[in-house]
Amino acid sequence: MDIAPFATEQFFSLYEFTTPHLLCASDCETISIGELLRLAGTDAQALLGLRLGYTESAGHPALRAAIAATYDGVTPQEVVVLGAPEEGIYLTMRTLLEPGDHVIVLTTAYDSLLNLAEHVSGNVSRWPIHPREGGWSLDLGELQRLMRDDTRLVVVNFPHNPTGYLPSTAEFEALIDIVRRHGAWLLCDEMYRGLERDPAARLPSATDRYERAIALSGLSKTYGLPGLRTGWLVIHDAAIRHSLINWKHYTTICAAAPSEQLAIVALGAREALAGRSRRIIADNLATAGQFFNRRPQMFDWRPPLAGSVALVGINVSSATDYCHALARDGGVLLLPGTCLGADDHSVRFGFGRASFPAALAAYEHYLDRVIES
Ligand SMILES: Cc1ncc(COP(=O)(O)O)c(C=O)c1O
Known about the structure:
- By secondary structure, the protein is an alpha/beta fold.
- The chain has 2 domains: about 5-30 and about 270-365, Aspartate Aminotransferase, domain 1; about 45-270, Type I PLP-dependent aspartate aminotransferase-like (Major domain) (Aspartate Aminotransferase, domain 2, 3-Layer(aba) Sandwich).
- About 40% of the residues lie in helices and about 15% in strands.
- The chain has helices at about 5-15, 35-40, 45-50, 60-70, 85-95, 110-120, 140-145, 170-180, 240-250, 255-270, 270-295, 320-330, 355-370; strands at about 20, 80, 100-105, 125-130, 130, 135, 150-155, 185-190, 215-220, 230-235, 300, 310-315, 330-335, 335, 345-350.
- The strands form 4 sheets. Strands 2-10-9-8-7-3-4 form a 7-stranded mixed β-sheet, with helices on both faces.
- β5 (about 130) and β6 (about 135) form a beta hairpin.
- α2 (about 35-40) crosses α10, α5 (about 85-95) packs parallel to α6 (about 110-120) and α5 (about 85-95) packs across α9 (about 240-250).
- The structure holds pyridoxal-5'-phosphate.
């Protein structure tokens, strides 16, 4: 059975580990196990006794409790620990959708949020995020018009990859009201939550506002630990949760035991980890802002409100061709917007890495060279 190409991963697999200057990563700067243990004040000895057997399918009880404590109204039983955040998207679509079910997906979107809905239901309406001067906007009237009596699922992602858009709390609650009026499920991908420019703008988790919301989160982005592959879903509804765990028996059965232990450690240091990511992003956004100001003819800069990425307009005939050439000839990686369903005149920048200033300097050097030649 065929599925749409996972364009973002396919592009990264060509260049991620061979291109010297990554300018488009969505994760934040990572740390070593040693640094993590030091940051959390944990003795490495405590981890060495871990026996490497299977763990519980829903997740280690201590990890589920640590995750639940990061929400307002979530119990450990409502948390399902995943083999990877990505797995949560697959399991949710498999659990909630039958072929033909109507789904609405906020687009542009991280590939699997759209492609898996298309694959399983084959009946997806796209709800586009719109560019506006200096930023992005949602049209809730458009969402209302797309909703049908039989809409089964609405899929959103805030802070949004790739635009960095973050709705206001009032806008988010109005969105949830629309979904609630139709009794639909809401999958809210909250992978970048905690990376708001203005901490006061942080949204509540959708699961703290709506009983039919399913929240996806994990340690890959905000906490800079993608190598742990730790992710989780929060699901209030027991029947849906059980049916999702049944699907999970066909994918990973349980998370990796060492990752679960390190995730417990990481959650103990989560404020320090997220604060570190926010500081790196703030510094990099300041550097990026100056770069874009120097090149207004080349780029259309819409600073992100939250998250670690931004979708930037670029004045070239094909952003896709440009990104391949830039990787090959300049050793600099930008992600074509087309990978995420945007037009071919946009690229994704990522601001979470400590190497961003050096990578941007390499890019600027390349641009100067191209102009001179
Ligand atoms: C919005 C969004 N959701 C989910 C994921 C999946 O996270 P992971 O790659 O850690 O499984 C990503 C990764 O880029 C993402 O951007």
